[in-house]
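Input structure tokens:
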């Protein structure tokens, strides 16, 4: 049987009666089930992901060797997951044993809950019989004998129904309690720790591509109270220039956007011929190529199309990143701003400068007003691409150009 312990008292009674050989066999089975679980490769990636993200955030230069290692390990875990999935479905015996072991765990856990709840009403002789039968179930599970395990599970079910049947009905509180715990854990993770976000448009090209799936650090700027748009306290630091953030659009709260922070409170931002100026200081940028091709998505036709842009490398207060500009822009003819960023807000722009509904353009809402993003609307900082489904990926020729872009796995968001 798997290691999921039945109840404390039932489990203790079983442990007291196991021989050293039975204990060893039980532990071996527990490790086997753990390593052949579909959760094993997923947990492996998760355990490696935390130190990986911490490392590349604290020491960005390490990404040159850390990303290939993480990508290789991630692909190895994907292969392991697929292999386990095929093996688990191909082996009839393993499939039956897995089902029976699950039934046994559920039944033993139920017995544990009942015995704990009505311990004063169950004779010691009944508890003793349940313990003996539970050990028989465990022995059949360790022996990997489906027929014997099925027989012993049925015997335990009959014994449970005979002596504990009157107490088997699950209370509403038990149901709500179990569901509530799972819901609470999910809410804590999404609200406080990390949340996935899919890139829906090309406004952040070439840094983020359509179909990229990124993880968002929810605690770096402070825990945001959902639906209230307030951050009661700061945990690590305030948003900085160059951060790529996910935020709830203050102009249209039904939408979440992802943009780059260009101005912080007190900054005066201007854009002159596509060049950013902050507090009168021009932010350096270097031309990379005048004919850079990106792949964009037309929602109306449902097709990919090529778009030619001018590619620059921009240094935004020490954060070096790529940006795009329309090749039809006329030098010396355009001046946007100045925009003075109010307290507790940021000024944001997309890296695809001429194809982005950002602070310059009221964050996509009607009107020509400038729209700043208050701290309370910021959900978090984009950390890393963990999955990418888009143009040119693996098997893309089978799905209209959309495929698995393996080369973008675990790409840091810079």
């Amino acid at each position: 049987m798997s290691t999921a312990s039945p109840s404390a008292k039932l489990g203790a009674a079983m442990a007291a009666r196991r021989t050293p050989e039975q204990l060893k066999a039980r532990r071996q089975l527990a490790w086997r089930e753990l390593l052949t679980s579909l959760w094993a490769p997923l947990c492996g990636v998760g355990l490696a992901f935390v130190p990986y993200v911490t490392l590349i955030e604290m020491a960005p230069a390490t990404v040159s060797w850390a990303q290939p290692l993480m990508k290789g390990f991630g692909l190895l875990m994907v292969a392991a997951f697929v292999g386990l999935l095929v093996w688990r479905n191909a082996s009839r015996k393993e499939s039956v044993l897995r089902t029976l072991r699950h039934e046994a765990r559920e039944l033993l856990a139920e017995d544990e809950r009942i015995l704990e709840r009505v311990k004063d009403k169950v004779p010691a002789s009944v508890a003793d019989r349940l313990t003996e039968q539970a050990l028989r179930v465990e022995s059949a599970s360790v022996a990997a004998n489906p027929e014997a395990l099925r027989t012993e599970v049925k015997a335990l079910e009959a014994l449970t129904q005979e002596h504990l049947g009157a107490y088997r009905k699950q209370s509403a509180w038990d149901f709500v309690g179990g569901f509530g715990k799972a819901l609470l854990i999910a809410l804590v993770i999404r609200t406080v720790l990390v949340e996935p976000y899919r890139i829906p448009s090309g406004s952040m090209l070439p840094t983020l591509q359509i179909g990229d799936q990124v993880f968002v650090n929810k605690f770096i700027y402070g825990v945001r109270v959902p639906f209230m748009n307030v951050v009661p306290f700061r945990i690590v630091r305030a948003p900085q220039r160059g951060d790529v953030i996910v935020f709830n659009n203050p102009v249209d709260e039904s939408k979440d956007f992802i943009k780059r922070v260009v101005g912080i409170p007190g900054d005066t931002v201007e854009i002159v011929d596509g060049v950013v100026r902050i507090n009168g200081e021009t932010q350096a940028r270097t031309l990379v190529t005048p004919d850079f091709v990106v792949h964009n998505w037309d929602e109306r036709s449902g097709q990919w199309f090529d778009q030619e842009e001018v590619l620059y490398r921009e240094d935004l207060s020490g954060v070096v990143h790529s940006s795009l500009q329309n090749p039809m822009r006329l030098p010396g003819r355009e001046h946007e701003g100045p925009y003075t960023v109010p307290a507790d807000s940021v000024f944001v722009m997309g890296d695809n400068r001429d194809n982005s509904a950002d602070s310059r353009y009221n964050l996509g809402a009607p009107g020509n007003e400038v729209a700043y993003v208050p701290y309370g609307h910021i959900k978090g900082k984009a950390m890393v691409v963990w999955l990418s489904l888009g143009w040119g990926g693996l098997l893309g020729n089978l799905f209209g150009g959309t495929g698995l872009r393996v080369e973008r796995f675990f790409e840091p968001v810079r």
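Residues 192-412 form a domain with the Umud Fragment, subunit A fold (CATH 2.10.109.10). The chain has eight helices and 16 strands.
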